[in-house]
Write a structure and sequence with these properties.
Elements (H helix, E strand, L loop, with lengths): L16 H12 L8 H9 L4 E4 L6 H11 L3 E5 L3 H13 L4 E4 L5 H12 L5 E4 L1 H4 L4 H7 L2 E6 L20 H6 L5 E5 L4 H11 L5 E4 L7 E7 L3 H11 L4 E5 L3 H13 L4 E4 L5 H12 L5 E4 L12 E6 L6 H8 L9 E7 L1 H12 L4 H19 L4 H8 L12 H4 L5 E2 L1 H13 L6 H9 L4 H6 L15 H13 L3 E4 L5 E4 L1 H7 L6 E2 L2 H9 L14 H21 L3 H4 L2 H10 L4 H5 L6 H24 L1
Parallel strand pairs: 1-6, 1-7, 2-4, 2-5, 3-4, 5-6, 8-13, 9-11, 9-12, 10-11, 12-13
Antiparallel strand pairs: 14-17, 15-16
This protein binds adenosine-5'-diphosphate (ADP) and zinc ion.
Zinc ion binds next to helix 16 and helix 17.
Length: 622
C-alpha cells in the first residue's frame, strides 16, 4: 500500500498548507478545499478537539479523512449508520486508502482479518459502530494500537435535545478518559446551538473549537403549499421536471407505495422506497435512481442518507416532517450540483396532529417536551409569512437575515409594517428578566398580566412590565414567533425554554436595525386564500454536455458492473459532470477533473478518455 508522509510528526504541518492540498489532490483528486475544511484539518492536526457543523454534502468526511492520512497512526471513526459504513470504506478503498469497518454485519473470518491488519498497522481508517466500540475488551485493544484521532460522526445523536438521540452515544465520553491525548473531532449536519453545546460537553472535549459552515443553499427554491389538493400539484411538479430526478417524501410506507403507483399510471418513471423493502430491492431502487434509470422516488425518510447524487432537481414533502433539522436535511438532497432546484412542502393540519399523536406517546416527559417544541417550530415555519430561508438559517444560528428572493414569501411578499418598537419592547423585557422568560411568560410581562409565575419571580418590577398592553396576547404570540423566525430571539431548549436574545436581536435593541412585521390579520388572510404558484424554470447542463454525460454514465455503469461495485465508487455524478464539461483529451487533462486522483486516473483514465475521444469524433462528423 502506498504510504504518504505518514511517518512525519503532525507538528510539521504547522504552516504547510501546500502539502495538505497536495495530499487532497493526490488521494481524492480534489483541486481545492471546500470552505472550512482546511481550517478544521489544521486544527485537528495540531492535536486539538473540534466540533464541526456542516450541511449535508458540505464535505465533512474530508475533515477527518485527510488528517487520517497525515497522522502516523490509526483514525477511528464512530458512526451509527451501519448501512453507510460500507459505502464510505469502499469509497476510500476506491481511492487506494487502506480502510475497514467493524460492525455486526461481518463474518467471523472477515473480522479476524481486520484485527490482523490493525495489529500490523496496515489500516489508516477504521469505522466502528458505537455498540462495537463498547463491546467487551475492544477499547483495551485500541489502547494497544497507535490511535491518532477519533472522529464521531452524526454527533448530534449524543444529545437528548437533538432529533435522533442514541443512548449508546452517551458513553462516548469514555474516549477522552481513556485516550486523553488523542484529539476528538465531532461532526454533524444538524445541530442548533443547544445541541452543539451538548455535544462538546457530553464528549468531554477540551477547549474545542466549533466550526460552522454556511448552511445557505441559495440555489434551492423554497415553497409551502396547502395540503388540500396535493395530487394536482404533484402532477404539475413532475410535469415541469419531466425526465429529471426528484424525491417525494411521504410519512408512511403505504403512502409512498400508493403515490408511486399513481405516478406510474400517468407514465412517470417512478418507484417507492421504504424500510420494509428487503435489502436487495432497496439497493436496486437506490442504484437505479442514482444512475438516472429511475426518475422519481416516493420514499419514507429511510431514503437518502449517504446518497451522493448531484442532479436531484426537486424534493417534495408530501407530509410535513416533525423537525426543521430533518426537513432541512431532506431538502438538502436537491441541487447538490449548485444548479437551480425546487423544494415544496405540503402543509396540512392533519400532519401536525399525526406528529402530536406520536409525541403524546413518548414516556420520558423531558424528551416529549423537546419533541413538541421542535414540532412547533416546524409548524411555525410552514405557516410563516417571513422569508423562509431567513427562518431556516436563523434556526441554525446564522446571521444572514436579508430576504432571499428565492422563496414563496419573497416572491409574493405580504404587506409589512414597521415593527421596530414592538420588537424593542419584547427584546428589552427579555434582557431585563436576565433571559429567564419562556414565551408565555413574556406575553404576560408585555401585557402586564399578574399571573402566578410573574408574581413568584417578581417580574412585575421589570421596567417594561405592561409596556405592550395595547396589543392583544394573540398578536404578541404571532409577533414573538416572527422574532424567532427572524433570528432576533432563540429558545434555550436545555434551559427551561427560556427566550434568549441573539446578536441580531441586540442590534435591534440598540436601534441599529429596523424590523418588518406582518400583522396577524394579514397572516390569517394569506393562510386562507388559495395559493397560486408561478412555475419555476429549472436549467440543466448544456445540451452538448448532457449528451456526453449520458455516455459517461453508461460507461461508469459498465465498469461498475464489471467490478461488482456501486457506480459511485468509480466516479461521482459531480465528477462525471465536470468531465463532460472539461472534456479532457489526455491523461494530464484528465487529472484536472474534480474528483480524479492518481489512483483513479490510472485505473479508469484510459476508458473514459477513449469514450470522450469517440464522442468528439462523432460530433466532428455530424
Ligand atoms: P457530508 O458528509 O458533509 O454530507 P461528504 O463528506 O460525503 O459530505 O462530501 C460530499 C461530497 O462532496 C462528496 O461527493 C465528496 O467527495 C465531495 N467533496 C468533499 N470535499 C470536496 C472538495 N474539497 N472538493 C470537491 N469535492 C469534495
Ligand atoms: Zn425568501
Amino acid at each position: 500500500m502506498e504510504s504518504v508522509i505518514l511517518s512525519e510528526p503532525p507538528a510539521s504541518y504547522g504552516n504547510s498548507d501546500p502539502s495538505l492540498l497536495e495530499l487532497l489532490e493526490r488521494h481524492f483528486g480534489y483541486k481545492s478545499f471546500r470552505p472550512q475544511q482546511l481550517e478544521v484539518i489544521e486544527h485537528v492536526l495540531h492535536g486539538r478537539d473540534a466540533v464541526v457543523l456542516m450541511p449535508t454534502g458540505g464535505g465533512k468526511s474530508i475533515c477527518y479523512q485527510l488528517p487520517a492520512l497525515a497522522f502516523p497512526g490509526l483514525t477511528v471513526v464512530i458512526s451509527p449508520l451501519i448501512a453507510l459504513m460500507k459505502d464510505q470504506v469502499q469509497s476510500l478503498q476506491g481511492n487506494g486508502i487502506p480502510a475497514a469497518f467493524l460492525n455486526s454485519t461481518l463474518e467471523f473470518n472477515e473480522e479476524r482479518l481486520i484485527h490482523q491488519q490493525l495489529r500490523n498497522g496496515e489500516l489508516k481508517l477504521l469505522y466502528v459502530s458505537p455498540e462495537r466500540l463498547f463491546q467487551l475488551g475492544f477499547l483495551d485493544r485500541l489502547t494497544e494500537l497507535n490511535v491518532s484521532l477519533f472522529a464521531v460522526d452524526e454527533a448530534h445523536c449524543i444529545s437528548s435535545w437533538g432529533h435522533s438521540f442514541r443512548p449508546e452515544y452517551k458513553q462516548l465520553h469514555v474516549l477522552k478518559q481513556r485516550f486523553p491525548t488523542v484529539p476528538v473531532i465531532a461532526l454533524t449536519a444538524t445541530a442548533d446551538r443547544t445541541v452543539r453545546g451538548d455535544i462538546a460537553h457530553s464528549l468531554g472535549l477540551r477547549e474545542p473549537q466549533v466550526f460552522i459552515s454556511s448552511f445557505d443553499r441559495p440555489n434551492l427554491s423554497l415553497a409551502v403549499l396547502p395540503g388540500q389538493d396535493r395530487w394536482r400539484a404533484i402532477e404539475r411538479i413532475v410535469g415541469r421536471h419531466a425526465g429529471r430526478s426528484g424525491i417525494i417524501y411521504c410519512n408512511s410506507r403505504a403512502g409512498s407505495e400508493k403515490l408511486a403507483a399513481k405516478l406510474q399510471a400517468i407514465g412517470v418513471n417512478a418507484d417507492f422506497y421504504h424500510a420494509k423493502l428487503d435489502a436487495l430491492e432497496r439497493s436496486r431502487v437506490q442504484d437505479d435512481f442514482i444512475q438516472g434509470k429511475l426518475h422519481v422516488i416516493c420514499a419514507t425518510i429511510a431514503f437518502g442518507m449517504g446518497i451522493d447524487k448531484a442532479d436531484v432537481r426537486f424534493v417534495v414533502h408530501y407530509n410535513m416532517p416533525g423537525t426543521v433539522e430533518g426537513y432541512y436535511q431532506e431538502i438538502g438532497r436537491a441541487g447538490r450540483d449548485g444548479k437551480p432546484a425546487e423544494t415544496i412542502l405540503f402543509y396540512s393540519y392533519a400532519d401536525v396532529q399525526t406528529h402530536m399523536h406520536f409525541a403524546e406517546e413518548i414516556q420520558d416527559p423531558r424528551y416529549k417536551e423537546v419533541v413538541i417544541a421542535k414540532l412547533d417550530r416546524m409548524k411555525e415555519y410552514a405557516e410563516a409569512q417571513v422569508c423562509r430561508r431567513t427562518i431556516l438559517l436563523s434556526y441554525f444560528s446564522e446571521e444572514t437575515v436579508e430576504p432571499c428572493g428565492n422563496c414563496d414569501v419573497c416572491k409574493d411578499p405580504p404587506k409589512y409594517f414597521d415593527g421596530t418598537v414592538l420588537a424593542q419592547k419584547a427584546l428589552s423585557a427579555v434582557v431585563r428578566s436576565r433571559q429567564q422568560l419562556p414565551m408565555s411568560v413574556l406575553v404576560d410581562v408585555l401585557k402586564g398580566t399578574r399571573s402566578p409565575v410573574v408574581q413568584e419571580n417578581g417580574w412585575e418590577r421589570i421596567k417594561t412590565f405592561g409596556a405592550g398592553n395595547d396589543v392583544s396576547a394573540f398578536a404578541w404570540i404571532m409577533f414573538i414567533q416572527q422574532f424567532l423566525q427572524l433570528g432576533l430571539l432563540e429558545i434555550a431548549y436545555a434551559d427551561h425554554y427560556h427566550l434568549r436574545i441573539t446578536r441580531a436581536g441586540e442590534a435591534v435593541l440598540q436601534g441599529e436595525r429596523p424590523v418588518r412585521l406582518v400583522s396577524p390579520a394579514t397572516i390569517k388572510e394569506r393562510q386562507e386564500r388559495p395559493k397560486q404558484r408561478k412555475d419555476v424554470l429549472v436549467a440543466g447542463p448544456s445540451a452538448a454536455a448532457e449528451d456526453l454525460l449520458a455516455e459517461l454514465k453508461a460507461l461508469r455503469r459498465t465498469i461498475a458492473a464489471d467490478l461488482k461495485k456501486p457506480a459511485y465508487i468509480v466516479f461521482s455524478d459531480a465528477t462525471l459532470l465536470d468531465m463532460a464539461e472539461k472534456r479532457p483529451g489526455n491523461i494530464y487533462e484528465f487529472r484536472l477533473v474534480n474528483g480524479v486522483g492518481d489512483h483513479k486516473a490510472s485505473q479508469f483514465g484510459a476508458a473514459f478518455l477513449e469514450a470522450i475521444a469517440a464522442w468528439r469524433g462523432r460530433r466532428a462528423v455530424n
